[in-house]
Every structure is written in structure tokens, then in C-alpha cells.
Amino acid sequence: MSKFDYDLFVIGGGSGGVRAARVAGATGAKVALAEEDRYGGTCVIRGCVPKKLMVFASTYSEAFQEAAAYGWEISTGAFNWGAFHERLNSELDRLEGIYRNLLKNSGVETFDQRAKVADAHTVELADGTTKTAKHILIAVGGHPSVPDMPGAEYGITSDDIFHLEKLPETMLIVGGGYIACEFAGIMTGLGVKVCQYYRGAQVLRGFDDEARGLIADGMRDRGVDLHTGTNIIEMKLAKDHDPEMEGGTASDAAAGAEPPDGKGKWDGKRGTAGPIWVKSTNGGEMVFDQVLFATGRTPNTKDLGLEDVGVKIGRRGEIIVDEYSQTDVPSIYAIGDVTNRVNLTPVAIREGMAFVETVFNGNPTPVDHDLIPSAVFTQPEFGTVGLSEEEAREQEEIEVYATSFRPMQQAFIDEKGRVLMKLIVSKETRKVLGCHIVADHAGEMIQLAGIAVKMGATKEDFDRVCAVHPTMSEELVTMKVPVRTA
Ligand code: NDP
């Protein structure tokens, strides 16, 4: 008989935590999991899944225009946010149900409440009860961070956007990362007039420069009013700034509002009080119906009792772990966004599985964070794996193979959007070090290109593959001459 209540107690029911709990359960381990919010976590409830459904919804506006250019006689009305939102909510309910069932069917005991660490083997639940476990796994994710600035409380974050009662007419998006650029496209496609402020010189810092440039051009072509080198310095309710303005007042806002569907977290003030006046670093003053902060995310390590038991926390609030996701306290492990390694759902899932393999199957398995393909669902879409041209040329001598062209589907109707197919190749080993695609369905393409790159394919391996014609991605195997070497 074990001296502990459980072999494993997981705190956090997102993608990583749920996967680790049920795979551990399948080994015969006695497992429990606590989740204070909805099961499925950021990805399913307020991230990847609802975001992608909004991407789908938003692309129809362009598809209708293209269909008309192709000869279809169609008449379209306005987008009905209410109808979409209702369907979105029931889909999220369905998915949450699936997550709960997966846990139940794996024999995982669940507690629908917050939990914190009391000591190396004890978890304390919000109702005051304590549970002991041989191992504790922290998989509590992160939350959006908002700049510290006067009036910031009137902005919303990606957590709030899925709860909007109605779509705003105008929106300012602050930030130039994944979330900012994805929502700039989504909102524009849904008919919102979007302005985006990014403090740096070009959006999507860290990715391949050529790809970033093409994406920014594509966003502007679709109607995003993108201002780089621009940040926001102050916000007020427009009515407080100018009493002639329509809209709510600060006291309306302070009175608070419930989330429209009664679910999720909602800061009473956010996005409910009417137009917002914004002052920016370039001296401009503008009024927007909504301001969305997409200014990064912070690990959820506050008030979890971690430091008290000796778990080391990094400068950005992340739990410090080794390659096996083990913390400084040997019985406590952490996976996913709370460790701020590579903040992507499939990575959290892999970290969870590697943890179970290490701890419950006696097979020490480090997490492989190398050559992770990913997609940014901007419009145009971006798929990427490996090194950018800029990173690769710092490392070794390279050849760059790239082509940017108007794809057949758009050229036919005289649309100006271009796509990019780009390979970064090591001069010495001939290995493809990076592959970058800007095009419709780039996310689907990069999943497949990622297999070849991960296998260590050379440029000549790519060349030996026969083209699939006529496609956009055939260019990946037909580029013969480098556009430059570095
Ligand atoms: P990112 O880190 O990608 O981007 C944050 C952006 O906000 C950057 O442009 C940053 O500027 C800017 N910023 C940060 N602080 C401030 C500030 N005080 N004032 C103004 N601008 C600021 O974070 P996101 O919130 O977009 O996304 C979080 C994470 O979620 C991503 O890193 C990614 O791992 C994950 N994600 C993945 C998706 C996918 O796979 N498709 C989709 C959505 C999210 P600067 O560049 O100058 O630092």
C-alpha cells in the first residue's frame, strides 16, 4: 500500500495536464487532477480552438468576393456575431465534455477547484482539504499580460474576446506577436475596422524577415491599418476625455458587468463601458470602440505555494525545470506554458507524455524542443520550421532558395496577394535548416515539410521529389538556383 493518497496529482486541466493525467492513469497509476476553471485550458476554451473557428468565420468575406470574381452570382449579408457566438459556445461545451470524459474513462479523479502546493507531496484544495501524492505535476498555463499604463483596465485581452456581446465597429490591437497579428486578420475579415500599433520596426519578431515583410504587406492589403514603431501611452473612456462624446462613463464601467454567458473570467470594467480615447507615442489621439491588448503572456505561478516548498521561479515568473520537466523539488514536475519554454499546445502535450514515460514507465525521456514546426494563423497564413535566414547566417554559411509569386487562384481574378516559399540550406552539409511558407493553408503544408526537415533532409533530397502540379508548394522541390548566399 502506498503511503500517499495518489501516485500523481496534476494541477491544471489544460492540454498538457489532461494528457499527462490520462496517460499516467493508463499505466495503472492512481491519478487525480484539479482544475479551477473549464477543462481544456487555454487552447480549447480561450485560445487555439475558438481562435481557429474565428479565422474560418473571418475568411468567408474574402471568399465571397473571390467567388463573385470567379463568376458566382451571390448576395451576402453582414456577419451575424450572435449566431456564430452561440454556435461557438456550444462547440466549446462539447469539447469540454470530451475532456472531462477522457479523464473519467482513464480513471482520473477530478476536483473542480483551485489547488496549491502545501509541501513536496501535499496539495491543498480551495475547500481546505489536503491530498497527498508521490508526484505532483504543475500544468497551470499562463494568462495574458497587460502593460502598466493609465487606463489599461479599459482594454480587453484574448481571454475576453470570445465573450464579446457584440462586435465593435472599430478596434485598436496593441502588439505585434502571434495573437495581435492573428486577431487583426480575424477582426478585419469579420468587418471590424482594425488599427494595430506595434512598438518595433516589423511585426512577428523572431521569425524570418522576408516572411514577416510579406505578412505585414498582406495584412495591410486586407485592410489592417498597421502602424509599426508606435505604442500606446494612455487610455481613457472617451466620455471622460471629452464630455461631448457618446458612450459610457468611468462610473458605468466601475459598476461592472457579468460575462455575457456567465462563464469564464471577466474583469468588470473591461470592454463594457463605451468608446475609448487613446494617446500614442507618435502624438496621435484616436477613439476606438475596443482596445485589445495582445502584449504577451505570463506564467500562472502566483499563489501556488511553489517558492515556499523550494520550487525555483525564473525572472518572467516561469517554473524552472530540467530536460525531464523536473523542478528543484524532486517530487514536483512542471509542463506547458507555466515553464515558458516553447508555449505551444502540442509541445505541452509532448512534455506531459515525456514526463509519464520518465516517471511512470521508468524510461527517462528528455523533451525534444528542436525543429518544432508551427503556424501563425495570420491572413496570409504563415508556416515555419527551423532557422530563419537571419539566425542561420549567424551560425554558418548558407544558401537561400526563395520564390514569391501570385498563386494561380488569385492571379486568375487579378488579386495582388503573393505567397512565399523559402528554404534555408547549409552550404556545408546541404541540410535544409529552415523552411518558411506564407500562403493559404501554410499551416497544413509546414506540418509535412516539417517531417522532412526533422529527418535531416538535404536540398538534394527535396530536389529528388517529383512536383505535385499545379500547386503552390511544388515550388519547394523545383527551386534550382539560390537567390543569395550568405
Ligand atoms: P508574443 O510574445 O508573441 O507577442 C507579444 C507582443 O506584444 C510582441 O509584439 C511584443 O513586442 C509586444 N509587447 C510586449 N509588451 C508590450 C508592451 N508593454 N507594450 C507594447 N507592446 C508590448 O505574445 P502573444 O500574446 O501574441 O502570444 C503569446 C504566446 O502564445 C506566443 O508566444 C505563442 O507561443 C502562443 N500562441 C501561439 C499561436 C500559434 O501557434 N498560432 C497563436 C497564439 C498564441 P516585442 O516584439 O517588441 O517584444
Number of domains: 3
**CATH third-tier fold name of the largest domain:** FAD/NAD(P)-binding domain
Radius of gyration: 24 Å
> What do we call the CATH homologous superfamily of the largest domain?
FAD/NAD(P)-binding domain
Please tell me what the overall shape is: globular
Amino-to-carboxy terminus distance: 64 Å
Strand content: 15-25%
| Bound ligands, each once | NADPH dihydro-nicotinamide-adenine-dinucleotide phosphate
What share of the residues lie within helices? Answer: 25-40%
- Pick out the low-confidence regions: 247-268
Indicate the mean pLDDT. 93
Number of strands: 22
CATH structural architecture of the largest domain: 3-Layer(bba) Sandwich
CATH hierarchy, class of the largest domain: Alpha Beta
**SSE class:** alpha/beta
**Major beta sheet, specifics?**
7 strands, mixed
Count the DSSP helices: 15
Q: Describe it for me?
A:
The protein has helices at residues 15-26, 41-46, 48-69, 81-105, 158-161, 178-189, 209-221, 238-241, 250-255, 306-309, 345-359, 389-395, 408-411, 442-454, 459-464, and strands spanning 6-11, 31-34, 109-111, 115-119, 122-125, 130-138, 142-144, 170-174, 193-198, 225-228, 232-237, 276-280, 285-288, 290-293, 297-299, 332-334, 374-376, 382-386, 398-405, 419-426, 432-438, 484-485. By secondary structure, it is an alpha/beta fold. It is 31% helix and 22% strand. The chain is globular and about 70 Å long. Bound molecules: NADPH dihydro-nicotinamide-adenine-dinucleotide phosphate (NDP). Residues 147, 174-180, 182, 198-200, 205, 231, 294-297, 343-344, 374-377 line the site of NADPH dihydro-nicotinamide-adenine-dinucleotide phosphate.
